[in-house]
C-alpha cells in the first residue's frame, strides 16, 4: 500500500510540474537534470545496490555478522558517494552537454543539475539502508521512501518563491532525497542495536569488485536506455522530452506495482539459493513471474485502452494543453508495448544475482537490448519522431527480457522456461482482448472521467475472464486473493482504529 501511495504521489508531483511549467523548454531543462536522480535511483536504490547488498546482508543476518558488514562497507560507501556528488556538481555544464546537446536553455539545465546532484549521496544511503532492512524482513520503512521523496518535492515546489521557476523542483529533489534517508534511519538503527554478536567462526560476506562490476554494468546499461531516449529527443521540437517523460511516468505505474512482490521475496530467494535449496527458489520465482505478469498486463491493457482520458485527467490544466495531451497519450500507448519486458527484466535479474556470485550474463543481455534500442531509435526517430523513440525502447527491453528468460535455467534458478513462456502467452492474449474491450467502452463516452471508469471496468472484467478461461497462471491467485484481502481488511481495520 505504501509503494502504491508513493507511486500515486509521484503522479501528483508530475501534475504539479505539468501545471506550473507545462511541456516546453523550461520543463525540458529540468528533465535533463532529472536524469541524475533517475540514474542514481537505478544504481543506488532499485537495481545495483539491492542486487549486491540484499544477498550479502541476508547471509550476514544468518551468520550474525551484520555489524561487521556495516563497519566494512558503510564508511567507504559514504566517502565514494560524496566524491562523486561533488564531481557531478562541478562538472554540471559538461553533464548537460553530454545528455542533451543543443538544449535551448542550457544554463537553466546546469542550475537544476547542480541541485539534483546531491541525490548521488542521499540515494546511496537510501539504497544501503533499504537493502539492510529488507534482508532483516523489514519492509515498512523501505516501502515509504517514495512517499517521503515525492512529498518533499511537492511541498518544496509549493513553498519556494515562484521566481525560482523550475529550479524549485530541482531543489525539491534534493530535499526529497534527504527525507528518504531520514525515514529509514531509525528503523535500521533499531535493527543494528538488536543484532547479537557474530557466531563463532562466522565470515563477513564479501562485496568485492568481481561481484559489484557485473551488477553496475547491468544497472548502467538499463538506465542508459533513458539517456539514449533523451539524447535522440533533444533535437526534436520543444516538448518532445517532456511528452516522453510524462508518458513513461504514467505507463510505468503497472510495472512498479507488479514488482512489489518480487522486492519482498528477493531475500527469500537469496536465502534459498545460499542454502542450496533450488527447488524452493524455483517455485517462488515461477509464482512471482506469473503474479507480476498478471498485474503489469492488466495495467498495460488499461493504459493502452484509456490513454487520452488518463492523460487528460492527470495533466490537462494550466500550461499543459490539449495538444500536449494528444501527444503524450500517443507516446504512452507505444511505450506500453514494452511494459511486460520491463517487468520481466526487473524480476528475472533478481534471480541471477540471488546467489551473490559474479555473473556477467545479465549485463551482456542488457547491453544487447541497449544496442537494439540505440540503433532502432536512431533510425525510427527520423520517420516517426518521438513515437519512434518509444518503439525502440519497447524493442530493446523486450529483447533483454527474452535473453534473460531463456538463459536463466542453466545459470541461476532452474525455472521451467517453456512453462513460464506458455503462461505469459496466455496472459498476453487476455490483455489483448481486454484492451480491445476497454478501448471500445472508453471511446463511447465523451466525459474523460466516465470513459476511464467504464474502460477500467471493461478491461478488468475481460482480462480476468479470458485469463481464467485459458487457465493462465496467476489469474486464479488474483481472483482468490480479492475476497481474502477484503476479509483481512475487515478484521484488521477495527483493531487499527
Automatic annotation (TrEMBL):
Pfam family, one: MurJ
Topology versus the membrane: Multi-pass membrane protein
Domain of life the protein comes from: Bacteria
Keywords, comma-separated and alphabetical: Cell membrane, Cell shape, Membrane, Peptidoglycan synthesis, Transmembrane, Transmembrane helix
Keyword RNA-binding set for record: no
Chain ranges passing through the membrane: 42-62, 74-95, 115-133, 140-160, 166-189, 201-221, 251-269, 289-315, 335-353, 360-381, 387-408, 420-445, 457-482
Entries under InterPro entries matching the protein: Lipid_II_flippase_MurJ/MviN, MurJ
Subcellular location: Cell membrane
Record bears the keyword Mitochondrion: no
Name recorded for this polypeptide: Lipid II flippase MurJ
Organism: Streptomyces tremellae
Amino acid at each position: 500500500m505504501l509503494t502504491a501511495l508513493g507511486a500515486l504521489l509521484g503522479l501528483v508531483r508530475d501534475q504539479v510540474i505539468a501545471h506550473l511549467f507545462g511541456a516546453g523548454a523550461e520543463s525540458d531543462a529540468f528533465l535533463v537534470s532529472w536524469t541524475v536522480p533517475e540514474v542514481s535511483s537505478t544504481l543506488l536504490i532499485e537495481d545495483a545496490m539491492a542486487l549486491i547488498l540484499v544477498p550479502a546482508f541476508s547471509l550476514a543476518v544468518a551468520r550474525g555478522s551484520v555489524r561487521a558488514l556495516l563497519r566494512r562497507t558503510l564508511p567507504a560507501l559514504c566517502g565514494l558517494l560524496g566524491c562523486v556528488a561533488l564531481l557531478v556538481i562541478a562538472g554540471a555544464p559538461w553533464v548537460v552537454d553530454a545528455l542533451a546537446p543543443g538544449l535551448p536553455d542550457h544554463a537553466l539545465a546546469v542550475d537544476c543539475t547542480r541541485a539534483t546532484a546531491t541525490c548521488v549521496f542521499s540515494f546511496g544511503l537510501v539504497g544501503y539502508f533499504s537493502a539492510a532492512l529488507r534482508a532483516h524482513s523489514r519492509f515498512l520503512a523501505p516501502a515509504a521512501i517514495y512517499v517521503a521523496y515525492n512529498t518533499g518535492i511537492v511541498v518544496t515546489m509549493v513553498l519556494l518563491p515562484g521566481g525560482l521557476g523550475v529550479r524549485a523542483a530541482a531543489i525539491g529533489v534534493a530535499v526529497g532525497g534527504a527525507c528518504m534517508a531520514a525515514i529509514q534511519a531509525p528503523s535500521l538503527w533499531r535493527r543494528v542495536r538488536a543484532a547479537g554478536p557474530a557466531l563463532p567462526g562466522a565470515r563477513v560476506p564479501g562485496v568485492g569488485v568481481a561481484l559489484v562490476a557485473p551488477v553496475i554494468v547491468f544497472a548502467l546499461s538499463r538506465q542508459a536506455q533513458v539517456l539514449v531516449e533523451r539524447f535522440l529527443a533533444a533535437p526534436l521540437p520543444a516538448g518532445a522530452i517532456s511528452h516522453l517523460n510524462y508518458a513513461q511516468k504514467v505507463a510505468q505505474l503497472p510495472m512498479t506495482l507488479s514488482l512489489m512482490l518480487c522486492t519482498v521475496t528477493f531475500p527469500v530467494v537469496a536465502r534459498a539459493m545460499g542454502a542450496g535449496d533450488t527447488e524452493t527458489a524455483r517455485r517462488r520465482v515461477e509464482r512471482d513471474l506469473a503474479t507480476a505478469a498478471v498485474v503489469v498486463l492488466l495495467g498495460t491493457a488499461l493504459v493502452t485502452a484509456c490513454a487520452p482520458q488518463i492523460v487528460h485527467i492527470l495533466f490537462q490544466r494550466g500550461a499543459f494543453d490539449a495538444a500536449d495531451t494528444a501527444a503524450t497519450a500517443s507516446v504512452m500507448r507505444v511505450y506500453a508495448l514494452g511494459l511486460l519486458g520491463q517487468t520481466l527484466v526487473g524480476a528475472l535479474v533478481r534471480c541471477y544475482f540471488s546467489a551473490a556470485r559474479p555473473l556477467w550474463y545479465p549485463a551482456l543481455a542488457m547491453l544487447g537490448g541497449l544496442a537494439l534500442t540505440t540503433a532502432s531509435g536512431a533510425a525510427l526517430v527520423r520517420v516517426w519522431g518521438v513515437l519512434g523513440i518509444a518503439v525502440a525502447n519497447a524493442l530493446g527491453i523486450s529483447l533483454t527480457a527474452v535473453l534473460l528468460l531463456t538463459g536463466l535455467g542453466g545459470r541461476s534458478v532452474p525455472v521451467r522456461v517453456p512453462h513460464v513462456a506458455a503462461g505469459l502467452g496466455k496472459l498476453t492474449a487476455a490483455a489483448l482482448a481486454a484492451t480491445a474491450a476497454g478501448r471500445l467502452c472508453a471511446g463511447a463516452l465523451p466525459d474523460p472521467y466516465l470513459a476511464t471508469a467504464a474502460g477500467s471496468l471493461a478491461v478488468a472484467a475481460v482480462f480476468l475472464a479470458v485469463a481464467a478461461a485459458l487457465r493462465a497462471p496467476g489469474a486464479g491467485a488474483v481472483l482468490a486473493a480479492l475476497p481474502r484481502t477484503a476479509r483481512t481488511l475487515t478484521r484488521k481495520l477495527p483493531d487499527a482504529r
